[in-house]
Amino acid sequence: MFKINIRDKALNQLGNYINKTHEQIGLLIGKFENGELYINEVINGTGEADKSHCMFSQDLLAEVADNIINGRLEGSIVGWCHSHIHGGIFMSPIDIETQCKLQQFSQYIVSMVVDVSSRQFGIFIYDQQSGPIQIPSEYISIS
């Protein structure tokens, strides 16, 4: 288990776009340093969305990758985030599939799930033996 530090800026960016009538998705940008994951920025992922699913725009994903490679965006993709309209902080089967695809690039990729109705969030990793693991709140700090 590793510690996660979420910057205020990232939470503000997240708060600005999750309060919609349909699910939202985004990328978490930051770095893994000295045994701690830093989430510095959230990029809203425009694309298809409804009340029960959302998809990240391929064009925006390419733009984010280009911005990272060319130094216009500091850090790397350290995870993804999405909202649940119907309430609850959990990983659906589709969420698990998405997490597994991203986590193959790094064991430090996380999924942030936001419950729009309660405005609370949980952060998850996926373990092949145990399934989704929610990071305990004592491992998460906000600065």
Short description:
This protein has 143 residues and is of the alpha/beta class. The protein has helices at residues 8-18, 58-69, 93-103; strands spanning 3-6, 25-33, 36-44, 76-84, 110-115, 120-127, 131-134, 140-142.
> What is the CATH architecture assignment?
3-Layer(aba) Sandwich
* Residues in β-strands, percent: 35-45%
List the helices and strands in order. EHEEHEHEEEE
- Helicity level: 10-25%
Protein structure class:
alpha/beta
What's the CATH topology label? Cytidine Deaminase, domain 2
- Count, helices: 3
Rg calculated over all Cα atoms? 14 Å
Instruction: Characterize the overall form.
Output: globular
**Distance between the first and last residues' Cα:** 20 Å
Describe the fold and architecture:
- With 143 residues, the protein is α/β, with parallel strands linked by helices.
- The chain has one domain: Cytidine Deaminase, domain 2, CATH 3.40.140.
- The chain is 24% helix and 36% strand.
- It has helices at 8-18, 58-69, 93-103, and strands spanning 3-6, 25-33, 36-44, 76-84, 110-115, 120-127, 131-134, 140-142.
- A hairpin with a 2-residue loop joins strand 2 and strand 3 (36-44).
